[in-house]
Amino acid sequence: MIKDLNEIFKSYESFIGTEVTIQGWIRNHRKQKDFGFIDLNDGTCFETLQVVYGNNLDEFDDIQKMHIGSAISATGKIVASPKEGQKIEMELLSIVLEGDCPEDFPIQPKRHTREFLREQAYLRPRTNLFGAVFRVRSIAAYAIHKYFQDNGFVYFHAPLITASDCEGAGEMFQVTTLPIDKINEEVDYSKDFFGKMANLTVSGQLEAETFAMAYKKVYTFGPTFRAENSNTKTHASEFWMIEPEMAFCDLEGDMDIMEDMLKYVVKYVLDHAPSEMDFFDKFVENGLKDKLNKLINSNFVRIDHKDVITILKEANVKWEFAPEYGEDIAKEHEKYITEYFGGPVFIKNWPKDIKAFYMKQNDDNETVAAVDLEVPGAGELIGGSQREENYEKLVARMKEMNIEPESMDWYLNLRRYGGCVHSGFGMGFERLLIYLTGVDNIRDVIPYPRTPKNCEY
Amino acid sequence: MIKDLNEIFKSYESFIGTEVTIQGWIRNHRKQKDFGFIDLNDGTCFETLQVVYGNNLDEFDDIQKMHIGSAISATGKIVASPKEGQKIEMELLSIVLEGDCPEDFPIQPKRHTREFLREQAYLRPRTNLFGAVFRVRSIAAYAIHKYFQDNGFVYFHAPLITASDCEGAGEMFQVTTLPIDKINEEVDYSKDFFGKMANLTVSGQLEAETFAMAYKKVYTFGPTFRAENSNTKTHASEFWMIEPEMAFCDLEGDMDIMEDMLKYVVKYVLDHAPSEMDFFDKFVENGLKDKLNKLINSNFVRIDHKDVITILKEANVKWEFAPEYGEDIAKEHEKYITEYFGGPVFIKNWPKDIKAFYMKQNDDNETVAAVDLEVPGAGELIGGSQREENYEKLVARMKEMNIEPESMDWYLNLRRYGGCVHSGFGMGFERLLIYLTGVDNIRDVIPYPRTPKNCEY
User: Which of B114, B345, B447, B453 is the most exposed place for a label (fewest CB within 10 A)?
Assistant: First the structure.
């Protein structure tokens, strides 16, 4: 009977004494004169199964020649293991070599640097570290869907190719079927595929708002793109975003959902990937699980931007960037403020001049109802805002910021056709994964990362 | 107490006699001299709640002026409804106009053509038809995630921007930050963002195979792109695909999963969107629910391509395209064969010359282990294959088809480094939605469709 390893480990006691077949890959192979041990992983869980074989088997000599990385089908009896730290092992009865693997296979049972493994991106999920990272990526993605679906949100697929560049959230990639030339002359976009200039989206928010005005609660979860020429640990040209949008919801309600969602997703991952999280806790970020459990059990602080500036100014710290009312805050400030409060902090009501045109203008005429969630050890994890629902105020703000209202009549019309108080937020999925795993480079939490001058596979 | 309508309808009996507030939009408003009826929809379900008000309310005159499309908060008592076909209604106590809507609001309570609504894409989810379509889209997407996650598949995010054009599945969009010109001269791609020519992916399959060799069972669910200049009901330039990939799985196992997955998703949607499916059954495709229930309860036929050709040749039908051994089959053939068997049909073992290079070559040297699932009323819904795991055979086939093996060394290496029998398939998400809803134009199942010369929002 062919079984997946995750099934067997989940209820290992019921398998003791039974004969099963496992199909997977040899992670390690230790050979003695009269017996040997194969660590078999089939990809369905983090754990490997130790397969014990002896020279009583006819194929003993052939088995001893089997290489690390090879695909095998191993049939044997599951027995209680005498080895400490492992509940069960397999006494091998027969084995089939499904696919050999030469000895120059790059992934050997030793420590490889992450930089080396990045060069072998298509093989790295076969390691403990990346096997865990991309399983957690899958589980976290599902947790996000489950949270929103269980709470009545409609999943909205925002368009990826877009002709509108309104948010100004970042540099865009152009999408074309025209021949490309290095000389910039007059281009006749009427001859391009869409009959106009088209780009890859930087955010699905504005389109999500249109659906929020029909379904009340919607969320996107899809790829977004930035053509910024920055080579940092946290920038990628292609990444996935979650952008919920809620009608009849103000900034306080927005924060309620952010907090509830984040706690849910963190708890779901801790519950559903215990081995992976133990591994990260032990080998990637000491204290990771404590950090995450603390987040689940904390009440997130809510504080105005100006009060944060006051705290920063009064702090007995020599800042690299002096904190100032009306200005953005730096990484060092984010760090200080989460440590100051000992937990996650919502910083709200930001100076309007450093925020986007669509954010709700507060009565003070200086701030907007925007919020950033800062978490210990990661800084900004989520950004959101109440959206300006007043047609005239929105038009005036667009003009101030040199955005042509005519180019966005559909967006403005949402304020004319049964508009209401509404809010939303955006969470970068990879930023969440960095926080969840402790793996600190965005290139290591995306299967095939795209960055400047890098587009392999 | 603010409540969502779906909560109230779900356990309406427990709400009778209680006072609640509903926030949503006026779908219809019928006024009499001394009373009136508002049909209120809040987007959380298909149903509207009838709100009854009388001239005992101080605000009676103001309420009577409220327009269709306006956003309101209505507070009142839920009571059993005397009207046939509706269980409950609300006796209004007070109302707040959250956002007015002018009388020229394009969505009025009358029949609009789908063509007209396509021009108002950002408002169409506020209609019964599109409200139902995009809710079913969300539910079906979740059902797909749930099926694969519950069955131990890892969700894999394939890259969208890609430098490899190997599948040859379709025309590609180019992605660039270079200036674009209409003259095609020598282009120095080393100066482009990724340092080489980059395109939008047409399929994540090849990359998914790399993860299947680590996790055994993976699936993609993400956008794919085709720059084909075709204006048909079934072609879009941007659409979502599901591409599962399984190691240690042959063509029979592949079909098992296709059949199991499809039945699960269809049943999930019928169970979780009963009102929407009733609506489609009544107003879009008569017999839709019977069709879907029949699929759930059928055993899918499995038949070789050559036997299908024999049946077609022996049929007493005057074909527009004559069926022929070794050739593709036409829409009319697909239709005939599903009617012949009275249900879904897997057509397998296709002539190798009309299929892709990566498909497993059968021993007859004429066919490959490919399969298409044909369903009654929709034709091909899923296509899959066992993948060629033999390195030499794969290289030979690539050369025959003028694909440079050097350009795909990573893909070939999967056959060297512990390769094994493996299979996968691809399902166009919109094709599934067309099948599920009876809505027959792909432009009507995508929130913001992209087609040649069309890229609005």
Answer: B453
Of B23, B55, B21, whose CA–CA distance to B40 is shortest? B23
User: Is B117 in contact with B124 (CB distance < 8 Å)?
Assistant: yes
C-alpha distances in angstroms, B239 versus A33, A207, A235, B356, B452? 57, 16, 26, 21, 13
The single-letter code of the amino acid at A117 is L
* Cβ atoms of B219 and B212 closer than 8 Å: no
| Cα A452 from Cα B161, distance rounded (Å) | 12
Q: What would the two tokens of residue A379 be?
A: 């800084």
DSSP class of A442: G
Q: Is the entire prediction scored with pTM above 0.90?
A: yes
Q: Which residues contact B30 (CB under 8 A, 6 or more apart)?
A: B36, B37
Q: Do A417 and B216 touch (CB under 8 A)?
A: no
- Rounded Cα distance between B359 and B355, Å, is 7
Does the beta-carbon distance from A161 to B173 stay under 8 Å? yes
> Cβ(B286)–Cβ(B279) under 8 Å?
no
CB nearest to A126's CB, from B122, B178, B214 = B214
Find, among B431, B438, B450, B435, the residue nearest to B121 by Cα: B450
CB contact at 8 A, B354 and B397: no
Distance CA B432, CA B380 (A): 10
Give the neighbor-by-neighbor strand order of the sheet with A238-247. A154-155, A217-225, A238-247, A422-428, A379-387, A367-375, A345-351, A301-304
Q: What ipTM was predicted for this assembly?
A: 0.97
Cβ–Cβ gap B101/A141 under 8 Å = no
Amino acid at A234: T
Residues facing A35 on adjacent strands: A54
- 8 Å CB contact between A149 and A203: no
Residues of chain B contacting A175 with CB distance shorter than 8 Å: 173-175, 200
Per-residue pLDDT of chain B (457 residues; tens, 9 = 90+): 999 999 999 999 999 999 999 999 999 999 999 999 999 999 999 999 999 999 999 999 999 999 999 999 999 999 999 988 899 999 999 999 999 999 999 999 889 999 999 999 999 999 999 999 999 999 999 999 999 999 999 999 999 999 876 556 678 998 988 876 544 556 778 888 998 889 999 999 999 999 999 999 999 999 999 999 999 999 999 999 999 999 999 999 999 999 999 999 999 999 999 999 999 999 999 999 999 999 999 999 999 999 999 999 999 999 999 999 999 999 999 999 999 999 999 999 999 999 999 999 999 999 999 999 999 888 899 999 999 999 999 999 999 999 999 989 999 999 999 999 999 999 999 999 999 999 999 999 999 999 999 999 9
List, as one string, the DSSP characters of B384-433: EEEEP--HHHHHHHHHHTT--GGGGHHHHHHHHSS---EEEEEEEHHHHH
**Which of B122, B418, B448 minimises the CB distance to A69?**
B418
Q: Answer whether A441's CB lies under 8 Å from A233's CB.
A: yes
Q: Which of B44, B135, B196 sits opposite A455 (nearest CB)?
A: B196
